[in-house]
Amino acid sequence: MRYLILSDIHSNLEALEKSLNLAGGRYDQILCLGDLVGYGPDPNAVISRIRPLAGVMVRGNHDKACCGLMDTEEFNFLARAATDWTRTRLTPENAEFLRGLPSGPVQVNGIELVHGSPVDEDEYVFDTLEADRVFRAAGAPLVFFGHSHRQGGFLLAGDVPARPLPLPAIKDNEPAGLDLQPGVRYLINPGSIGQPRDGDWRSAFAIFDSDRNRVDFYRTPYDLAATQEKMRGEGLPEPLIARLEVGR
Ligand code: ZN
After folding, report:
1. What is residue 134's predicted lDDT score, i.e. its pLDDT?
2. What pLDDT is stored for residue 220 in this prediction?
């Protein structure tokens, strides 16, 4: 089975379409790690597009905030402004859909899916210390997570501390493969579709082939200018528009 793993789409329709287009024919099922909405200009169109495609989804913190399940006290003022804007735009049906999304962890064929971490759906896993703690709480040897918007992740082999995943340089539109080793535990982030923060503006995703036990990471350029123009047209905050082109 080949799973297309998407995370942190953040209402970026151009990035989502480009990634789906590139991934077309290379996967059997879509798994989505949350944050469909928030920040970007197309919350309803993104939900309409991904809803019929994704076999399994977990919710993200922005999904919760935008549908009113969570307040925005812990958000910075830019995230709060984008959340307020999204709340005014979401159709009642789409808000209801977001309210019904499950919290992680969700298990699919022995893989664990979470937005933040298996410990806490809203927790960030940025470094190996955090990864070490999270590995102990994981319910499966292979966990896919999002939330940090950084493609890559961590591995745990034997009694030594967790290490960052060795990620090769990733060319436009070409898979960069990682063969998973037996007996090793993995926390893998496919990267963010709609708002990468790993210093690379290109849309990011991954495909996990469970038969070959291999993860292919992808990056693909998308029509960034179109997304930015829509955001300006909607009066979304300028720093959120500018950050897209630097991937931070
Ligand atoms: Zn996010």
Report:
1. 94
2. 98
Q: Beta strands 203-209 and 214-220: pairing type?
A: antiparallel
Taking the whole predicted model, whether its pTM rises above 0.85 is answered as: yes
Distance CA 98, CA 208 (A): 25
pLDDT value at position 137?
87
Tell me, in angstroms, the distance from the centre of ligand 1 to residue 194's CA.
9
Residue 237 phi, psi (nearest 5): -60, 135
The SS3 call for residue 9 is coil
CA 35–ligand 1 middle distance (angstroms): 5
Spacing, Cα 202 to ligand 1 middle (Å):
15
Where residue 143 sits, what CATH number does that domain have?
3.60.21.10
**163: containing domain:** 2-243
Contact 99, 67 (CB under 8 A): yes
Tell me whether residue 78 is in a domain: yes
CA 71 to ligand 1 centroid distance, Å: 16
Please report whether residue 248 resides in a domain. no
Q: How far is the CA of 87 from the centre of ligand 1 (A)?
A: 16
Distance 15 CA to ligand 1 centre (A): 14
Number of domains in the chain: 1
Q: Residues 51-63: pLDDT tens digits?
A: 999 989 999 999 9
In angstroms, what is the span from residue 236 Cα to ligand 1's centroid?
A: 17
For residue 38, how far is its CA from the centre of ligand 1 (angstroms)? 8
* pLDDT at 159 > cutoff 90: no
Q: Is 62 helix (H, G, I), strand (E, B) or coil?
A: helix
Asked if pLDDT for residue 118 goes beyond 90, the answer is yes
